[in-house]
Amino acid sequence: MIWSFLAVLFSGWLYVDASYRGPQWQRWVFKPVTLLLLLALAWQAPVLNTTDYLILFGLLATLIGDALTLLPNRRMLYAIGAFFLSHLLYTLCFASHMTLSFFWPIPLVVLIIGVALIASIWTRLEELRWPVCTFIGMTLLMVWLAAEQYFFRPGDESFSIMVGTSLLLLANIVWFISHYRRRFTSDSAIVAACYFAGHFMIVRSLYLS
């Protein structure tokens, strides 16, 4: 695993660096390369249960979504659909390992975050309002289930999943705010770092199950 991890780390760092100050071609190359390396890392997990393959398919959907955002005309609607599918597959995988439980502060915090995010970008979304809101809702559901799983079944695996989903949510929050409200220094680098770290932590959980 160590060489695969180093390959993911190096490729991800090259993309994050390119997002901050590097050339366009470096971003085009190392974003899909990093996701492919993450997919290979997930495939090498010692034991893959049937539901664990949902994480591999989720990574594949993410790769497709990223490819759509790199197209010249930026097929955002289809990209959002691919990212929605990715988070849906992750959520189904996490839900399959859960028992019936409910800790009300978790969904309350998640709901507040979601309402604040949607309220801050609602007027700028135009025709993408409902696709974006649906995607945000799916991301929040994913984070909720991951946090519930860690609260009721604390351990390295559930902690890795909770951190991974939280980082993906943070990446989306920063991206939506910077894209639809106001750009700020290093926003792309922050999004990329949280994005790759989030997917990596979810893949890492496969080695802890």
Secondary-structure-based class equals mainly alpha
Given the structure, what is the number of helices?
A: 8
Tertiary shape: globular
Radius of gyration: 17 Å
Secondary structure: elements and pairs:
Layout: H1 2-20, H2 24-43, H3 53-70, H4 76-95, H5 105-125, H6 129-152, H7 156-180, H8 187-204
Helix pairs in contact: 1-2, 1-8, 2-3, 2-8, 3-4, 4-6, 5-6, 5-7, 6-7, 7-8
Fold and architecture overview:
This protein is mostly helical. The protein has helices at 2-20, 24-43, 53-70, 76-95, 105-125, 129-152, 156-180, 187-204.
Q: Short description, anyone?
A:
With 209 residues, the protein is mainly α. It is built from eight helices and no strands.
List keywords for this structure.
single chain, 209 residues, mainly alpha, 8 helices
